[in-house]
Amino acid sequence: MCYASKMFQPCQRFCELRRNFSLLIQNSTSFLVQLMHILCDSRRISVT
């Protein structure tokens, strides 16, 4: 998808940034899901 041509170096930089950003989004989403599970578990424990 990303072409490593010297004329299109900004595009390649943007592709790298986008890849890092998508990785960051994946990590944060999984972390949020884990956090939600922990919160739900603690709430369930406090309810019972």
Describe what you observe in this structure.
With 48 residues, the chain is mainly alpha-helical. It has a domain at 17-47. Helix content is 81%, strand content 0%. The chain has one helix and no strands. The radius of gyration is 19 Å and the shape is rod-shaped. The mean pLDDT is 79.
List the helices and strands and how they pair.
Layout: H1 9-47
How would you sum up this structure in a few lines?
With 48 residues, the chain is mostly helical.
H/E topology pattern: H
Give the biggest sheet.
Answer: none
- What is the number of helices? 1
Distance between the termini: 52 Å
Task: Let me know the number of strands.
Answer: 0
Helical amount among residues, as a percent range?
over 70%
Residue stretches low in confidence (pLDDT < 50, at least 5 long) are none
Radius of gyration: 19 Å
Note the overall shape. rod-shaped
Portion of residues in beta strands equals: under 5%
